[in-house]
Structures are given as structure tokens and as C-alpha cells.
Specification:
InterPro entries: Bact_solute-bd_prot1, SBP, SBP_1_CS. Residues 1-23 form the signal peptide. Belongs to the bacterial solute-binding protein 1 family. Keywords: Signal, Transport. It comes from Isoptericola chiayiensis. The structure is a single chain. By secondary structure, the chain is of the alpha/beta class. The protein folds into 2 domains: 3-159 and 318-357, D-Maltodextrin-Binding Protein, domain 2 (3-Layer(aba) Sandwich), CATH 3.40.190; 162-315 and 395-445, Periplasmic binding protein-like II (D-Maltodextrin-Binding Protein, domain 2, 3-Layer(aba) Sandwich). The protein contains 20 helices and 15 strands. A 5-stranded mixed beta sheet has the order 2-1-3-14-6, with helices on both faces. Strand 4 (147-148) and strand 5 (151-152) form a beta hairpin. Helix 3 (62-72) runs antiparallel to helix 14 (345-351) and helix 9 crosses helix 10. The longest helix has 18 residues, at 422-439. The chain is globular and about 65 Å long. The two termini are 34 Å apart. The model is unreliable at 1-18 and 20-37 (pLDDT under 50).
Length: 446
Amino acid sequence: MTARHRRALRGAALLGVASLALSACSGSTDAGGGSGDAEAVDTASVLEEGGEITVWAWEPTLEDVVADFEAENPNVTVNLENVGTGNDQYTALQNAIAAGDGVPDVAQIEYYAVPQFAIAENLTDLGPLGAGELDGTFTTGPWTSVQSGDGIYGLPMDSGPMALFYNQDVFDEVGVDVPTTWDEYLEAARAIHEADPNAYIANDTGDAGFTTSMIWQAGGRPYQVDGTEMTIDFTDEGTTRFTEVWQQLIDEELLAPVSSWSDEWYQGLGDGSIATLTIGAWMPANLESGVPQAAGQWRVAEMPQWESGAHDTAENGGSSLAVPAASENAELAYAFVEYANAGDGVQTRVDGGAFPATTAELESEEFQAKEFEYFGGQQVNEVLAESAANVVEGWQYVPFQVYANSIFNDTVGQAYVSGTTLDEGLAAWQESLVAYGDEQGFTVNE
């Protein structure tokens, strides 16, 4: 997935997707996707029989995966279509589901959006088709993210374990060590901005994905979901641990008021006025292509920790390939998904620059030993693979996370543009999400 596809989703257009959450639940806590009679796929027979499937995805390395898959299976035709990225595709997918026509056989769905489609029974449970035998194939974060209740509603395609990307030249010039804790990060932010009032340790104007990932790493568990019953609480210890430090960065104006993926952002990353990014493992290719003028300056380190000596990380971004429940060719669709995400297609995607979710690739010596010229010859994958192994377990997304992200800037985001604090913004976000959940038929506790 390219970087621009990981932006926080915003805008009224999201409301159409959000309304799907309980459209088929009828109060049931079973998120089963209507595939209870499915049997494990006899892949060889399915591929020999062949057929035609349609895949909706925007991930560019899938083009090579499809070409290889068709070459190995001449009786199969795969129509790869990019109908939009992120929310644009989710809207198109939900419209097709509602119309009962034009639903693809495979759809790329980001991890945070999987529960919303799964609980509406719009996805096939892939467990009975063979996914139940893949336990241990993927790293914990992505594998957990495609599960809802007792079902498996996609196979992880890539992952975004977080790390600290930093401009070594900036830290050398200021004479500050690269921070290993968030307290050290705060001190480094002060030193960088004091040395140059136009320089900042990071940018942030409010981003739902970044905020939830930071809460995740801090041990926060604001969402506790069991079918259609859930608790939403942004006052837990992990959440407040994050807001305490981040509020100081906001109050002291130590964060560049620049939106990620903007021209100003790329300029700041290139000229050193934005010194770090705490972001997912998919970032190296984006720096190489988007900030070529800073080649040799950037390095990668473990995320700063909330407690010295810890090694906790979180996921930021990443997608699955799922099979919509309305697919009329689910077995062939699953055979493709398994090939792309757990078979030979994985190496094809890694060769194309994707960051895998499979433990075999992440643990391989060849993968970890790769030297990145852009990062001064550093073996970046070694750091990122270690991060993938240290993702804190137990995180859950709310089953209407697409909607939640769409109203983030109207609530939490106000802390960046007004006198509202992060804690107050999170309280407003919580209130809105509780009300929305109640309206959609969930049982929501605070």
C-alpha cells in the first residue's frame, strides 16, 4: 500500500460506509459471513477447473502477482481493478453489496475496516476454506486484525509495525542523542526547536490512525468488543500515558503544523525541518521516492518506549485481501488470496517493495540483511522485523472505525487548532462514538 492510502479517512462521504455496521446483524453476536457450509479448498482441483474472478485492489505489486498466478494457472482469469483507494473503494463495495450486483470476488480492505464489514456479514469466513490452517503464518498484529469473533475474514497482505525514522544529520548538528524513550523524545523536541525555531522533531495536525497506534503502543485498550456489545473508554491508563506527553508537545508548539503527505511535509522531510517520523514499516519506499534529496541522512530505530528497557510497538497501516460473502466463486477467490498472501505471491510482493506480514519472510536472513543505500547502508529490515515481533497484543478496533476516523478531526483534532486539550477531544470523540453505536443497534458501555 502506498503512503497516501494510509491517511486518516475524513469527510461526509464516509457516512455511507459507516451505516453498514449492523445492517445484517439483527442483534446477533455471530459475525459469521454466511459461509458456515464452506469446506476446505482443494486448491489443485479448483485451479484445474479454473474460472474467472474479479479483484478490487489498489496495491501496485498485485499486478505482478496476478500475472504470475495466471501464468501458473492458465485456466484462471483474474480481473484486477482499481476502483479507488481506501474509503473510495469501501463506498463502491458497499454500494455493490446493497445493490446485489457487481460485487468483486476479492477486495483489499485495510485492517481497521475489516470488523465493520465482518460484523455486517458482508465477508466470507475463510477459516473453513483453509485459512484456519494458517495460524503461525503471519505476525500477531495483522493476524489478529483479520479475525472477528470466531471467524477469519481476510488474509493479511502487508503490515505496518512502527519504528522511528529519523534524520541523523539533524541530531548530529544539534548534538542530541536519538531518543529511546518518549521522555527523551520530548527533551529532543525542545532541543531541536531551540536550536532552530523553524525546525521540529515531527509534524502533527491530528491523525486518527497515528493517535490510535500510539495509544496501542502505550498499552491503551479504549475499545473492548464482543460481537455487538462493546465498551468505549478513552480514560484508561495507556491512553492518558500518551496524551500526557503529546499534550506537552502541542502546548509548547514543538510539532510542525504541517499535514502529512502535503508538499510542505515532503519539503520538511527533505530540508531537515521535520526531523522524525514515527510511522509504519511501509515508509522506506516513500522516503526514497518522495524525498530523494535527503538520501543518506535518514536512519531507522526502534520506537521510543514508555518505560526504559521495554520493546513495545504497534501497527500503523496495512491491508488484507478478503472475499465478499456475495462472491459466486469463493473457492477460486480464496485460492488466489492464499497464493498472494501466503504462497509464492509473497516474495513477488516483497521484491516489489512491499513489507510482508508473513513470519517466514520477516525472519529470513536475506530479508533482514538487505542494505538500504538511502539509509546509509543500514539493514533497515532488521529493525522493522524486530518491531513486527514486538507488537503489543490485545488491540481491537471499534466495528465502525471508518466512521470513527471520519469524525476524529471534529473532536480530537480540535486540540491542534483551539484551546481544547487532547483529553477533552478524546472525551468528545467517545461521546460521539457511543451515541453512534447506540443508534446503530450496538450495546455500548463507557
